[in-house]
Design brief:
Shape: globular
Radius of gyration: 24 Å
Membrane topology: Multi-pass membrane protein
Keywords: Cell membrane, Membrane, Transmembrane, Transmembrane helix, Transport
Oligomer: single chain
Number of strands: 0
InterPro entries: MetI-like (IPR000515), MetI-like_sf (IPR035906), PhnE/PtxC (IPR005769)
Number of helices: 12
Subcellular location: Cell membrane
CATH superfamily of the largest domain: MetI-like
Number of domains: 2
Main location: membrane
CATH architecture of the largest domain: Orthogonal Bundle
Distance between the termini: 19 Å
């Protein structure tokens, strides 16, 4: 009975939030003008970048050719695909763990509710600089530094994870309710104690959700780093596609798909157990 009441309260709360959202967006003349300008901007920019829908329609028959070649799967490559996918998972796991370990202290320094502007502004500038380069450019840089192979890919994933996850983390830390922080600070605790007993517990569910997301993303991202010789299953996919051997490339893509689905299922189970329950205070039916 209590579970049912909790579900109803959560549902009513969500409905109330939706009503407030739509009340804040009345369909008046001003908002209609904004929507019209956005649509006009999309049309103008599409023409500016030569995005012609007719080209897409004319190219649709080529999909049939690719699909026909993809069905010619070479099953002898599944063993190679499995081991290369295992290498990709290892790269993503190491890059995620090390990247998050570096990003967490940086995010604490970048949070405005924990530091003054002389601390958080330089840290945010550093994180913005790191985020400027996508992982593929970091991979090119590290291939030059350490040579071809998975190590360059791991370093690229670490750098991308630091820049990306640190931003999400310091935003989650800044969203922590100020009342518990003020109450604990009033009894004379140090900043480290404040972080240990208030900030991290209050933001833990958000941080775990972000870690799961970045690991899932890194699996996909690592799959294309082989384009620049940074190891992983992407090396095989890119090379087979380069020589129009779509049937062989399909074997590796199927392994990537299966791996992503498994990781997504595991991620959902972890979210249901540790994140959704802590945020809503109820169990999720399996």
């Amino acid at each position: 009975m209590e579970l049912r009441e909790a579900e109803l309260l959560t549902f009513n709360r969500e409905i109330t939030h939706k009503e407030k959202f739509w009340r804040c967006l009345p369909m008046n003349q001003k908002n209609n003008l904004i929507i019209g300008l956005i649509i006009a901007g999309v049309v103008f920019m599409s023409a500016n970048v030569d995005a012609d829908p007719r080209d897409f329609v004319e190219g649709l028959p080529n999909i049939g050719i690719i699909l026909q070649e993809i069905t010619e799967v070479d099953s002898s490559l599944f063993v190679t695909a499995f081991w290369s996918m295992l290498e990709t998972i290892q790269m993503a796991f190491i890059g995620t763990v090390v990247g998050v370990a570096i990003a967490l202290p940086l995010s604490l320094l970048a949070a405005r509710n924990l530091n003054n502007k002389f601390v958080y502004i330089p840290i945010r500038a550093l994180l913005a600089a790191i985020r400027t380069f996508p992982s593929i450019l970091w991979a090119i840089l590290f291939v030059i530094i350490v040579g071809l192979g998975p190590f360059a890919g791991v370093l690229a994933i670490i750098m991308y994870t630091v820049g990306f996850i640190a931003k999400l983390q310091y935003e989650a830390i800044e969203a922590v309710d100020i009342d518990p922080m003020d109450a604990v600070s009033a009894i004379g605790v140090s900043k480290l104690q404040l972080i240990r007993f208030v900030v991290l517990p209050e933001s833990a569910s958000h941080l775990l959700s972000q870690i799961l997301y970045i690991f899932d993303y890194n699996i996909r991202q690592t799959s294309i780093l082989g384009l620049v010789g940074a190891g992983g299953i992407g090396f095989y996919i890119i090379n087979y596609i380069k020589f129009f051997e779509y049937g062989k490339a399909a074997v590796f893509m199927l392994v990537v798909l299966a791996t992503v689905l498994i990781i997504d299922w595991v991620s959902v189970r972890i979210r249901d157990k540790y994140i959704v329950k802590s945020q809503r205070g109820m169990q999720i039916k399996a």
